[in-house]
Design goal:
By secondary structure, the protein is α+β, with helices and mostly antiparallel strands. It has 16 helices and 19 strands. The strands form 4 sheets. Strands 12, 13, 14, 15, 16, 17, 18 and 19 form an 8-stranded antiparallel sheet that branches. Strands 5-6-10-8-9 form a 5-stranded antiparallel sheet. The structure holds flavin-adenine dinucleotide.
Length: 531
């Protein structure tokens, strides 16, 4: 039976934690957030939905693949952030799309844009809907009707070039379906964001997502040969090239464009052979700082480990990988071509220089669910989105902040973001709580710290608490010299920080580009830039 997407939160109906498991989770978490009883909030049901009537209907030529039932519209109202799940649990569907279009092909996408233009509607490109920054919701202060353009039917690998090891792939394909189609060719894109199961190639490109590789090829950008998109002003396709110095790159303009310039329908992506050799290990450190210095040494070594993730002791404890005292550095290498044990051995020496001992894991044990710290962390990583929704369903505040900063600022930066977050949680009446940190990606010149907050929420007031804490954390990140986001995109939620971070003239340049490809401002108004 086909799995049905949950309309109010992460994943699929019937998957994740059931009520008994959620009550068990409540008992585990309560001591960490003040000990008060945590009760389960019933998730919304389809019967409860009572959305305002759609303000427009599709023309007969499009009607066969457009839907306007409450379930479909509610499922496309929000992304999957903490704020989105809280609003859904509160039964708030503030600005649902009037119609959800499921174009069957690229011409269908163009037809949606033409129809929206003639109907004076806004179009929101929708891939997997896993945005955590308000990227797929209707603009709050725009009265135009809204069409959500769900790319889910553009889900094929259209062509494989084995010689160049690349493939032409449609933009709406979700992670698992993409890998399923590449597997028979012995190839892989090997891009695994945590949202892999329900996020799409087009969404990854539009948000510059960060994936599996902790060093070197960290963002999807590195795998792009060319991109094809439909804009309201016409179609756009770059030439397939392994590299080019011909002026500013058209692909770079679409990468991170978050749907404001056009709908990405296809891309030629660089692939790899499936890895056959792996080696990995785990090192324990007495302090997070020592672990970070070891990660820096690995990042600057030229070894390019595929995994180089540092978990602080709290993160290790919460994910079930550690005892709550040691900070863990997970190190892994992989190759389709050659053994990687020598690289791991050298990594062990570098780790040793910084006070850690790398425990090498048995060969081939780094498969999902392996019964050691790294295996437990990996399976917790994959389950985390369901767990997050379960925590939100217990009335807690559960948010993540991620950023990147250069090594010269790293230690005071992490300390100041932690301190600002804790102070804001206390001020918002959301303390005691848990603040943990991990490094998701490591560069020669810096790293990407990722903070997770679990804190008690006040019923009916959680969104205000969240907004205050988020603002304080983002402010500390900006003051400390970090980026407003390393891989969660800008959307609407990160606009204030993005506006502060980018040069003013660049904003003008983006607006000018948008006027060329989208003169009527149909696409995602208010995301990234103001009209
Ligand atoms: C639990 C969880 C874990 C996550 N982990 C990661 C992670 O590890 N790494 C990471 O990078 N991100 C992560 N994210 C954030 C999110 O998954 C990424 O931003 C992802 O790239 C979005 O892909 P999507 O297909 O779901 O896009 P959507 O959410 O559908 O859309 C995101 C933005 O891109 C636009 N868009 C979507 N498709 C297209 C298209 N074809 N053409 C033009 N514009 C388009 C949308 O309009 C929107 O502005 C996570 C999110 C969740 C909920």
């Amino acid at each position: 039976m086909a799995r049905e997407r949950r309309f109010w939160g992460w994943g699929f109906e019937g998957e994740g934690l059931d009520r008994v498991a959620q009550e068990g989770l409540a008992a585990l978490v309560a001591p960490l957030v003040g000990g008060g009883p945590l009760t389960v909030i019933d998730p919304p049901t389809v019967d409860e939905l009572d959305l305002p009537a759609p303000r427009l209907s599709p023309p007969p030529t499009l009607a066969a693949w457009c839907r306007a039932d409450d379930r479909t519209r509610a499922g496309h109202t929000y992304g999957k952030s903490f704020r989105d799940v809280v609003r859904a649990l509160d039964r708030r569907w503030d600005r649902p799309p009037d119609v959800v279009a499921f174009p069957p092909d690229e011409d269908g996408v163009a037809a949606v844009l033409d129809w929206a233009s003639s109907a004076g509607a806004v179009v929101i490109p929708y891939g997997g809907g896993s945005s955590v920054v308000g990227g797929v919701e209707a603009p709050p202060d725009d009265d135009r009707p809204v069409v959500s353009c769900d790319l889910g039917r553009l889900d094929g690998v259209l062509e494989v070039d084995r010689t160049s090891r690349a493939a032409r792939i449609q933009g709406g394909v979700l992670g698992p379906a993409l890998e399923d189609q590449l597997r028979p060719h012995g190839l892989t894109l090997r891009h695994y964001p945590q949202s892999f199961e329900v996020s799409s190639l087009g969404g990854w490109l539009a948000t510059r997502s960060g994936g599996h590789f902790a060093t070197l090829h960290t963002h999807i950008d590195e795998f792009v040969e060319s991109i094809r998109a439909v804009t309201p002003a016409g179609r756009w396709e770059s030439r397939r090239l392994p590299g080019s110095g011909a002026g500013p790159s058209p692909d770079r303009l679409l990468l991170g464009s978050e749907g404001i310039f056009g709908v990405i329908t296809e891309a030629w992506m660089r692939l790899g052979d499936r890895p056959a050799f792996r080696a990995s290990g785990v090192a324990r450190f007495a302090t997070f700082e020592e672990g970070a210095r070891a990660a820096r040494a690995l990042g600057q070594s030229g070894l390019w480990p595929s995994n180089c993730r540092l978990l602080d002791a709290t993160e290790a404890l919460v994910s079930g990988s550690g005892d709550g005292h040691a900070h863990l550095l997970l190190v892994g290498f992989e190759s389709a071509d050659h053994p990687v044990d020598a690289a791991l051995a050298r990594a062990g020496e570098l780790v040793g220089d910084h006070g850690g001992t790398l425990e090498v894991r048995p060969a081939r044990a780094d498969v999902e669910g392996a019964d050691d710290a790294a295996g437990r962390w990996r399976s917790a990583f994959l389950r985390a989105p369901y767990l997050r929704d379960a925590l939100v369903g217990l009335g807690l505040v559960n948010e993540t902040f991620e950023t990147a900063v250069t090594w010269d600022r790293f230690e005071p930066f992490v300390a100041s973001v932690r301190a600002a977050t804790e102070e804001a949680l206390r001020a918002a009446g959301a303390w005691p709580g848990v603040i943990s940190c991990r490094l998701t990606h490591v560069y020669p010149d810096g790293a990407a710290p990722y903070f997770t907050v679990i804190a008690p929420g006040r019923p009916g007031d959680r969104l205000r608490q969240w907004a205050e804490v988020k603002e304080a954390a983002m402010d500390a990140i900006a003051v400390g010299g970090g980026t407003v986001t390393h891989h969660h995109a800008v959307g609407r939620d990160h606009r204030p920080g993005y506006d502060r971070q980018r040069p003013g003239l660049f904003a003008e340049q983006l607006r000018a580009s948008k006027r060329v490809v989208d003169p009527e401002g149909l696409l995602n108004p208010g995301v990234l830039i103001d009209p």
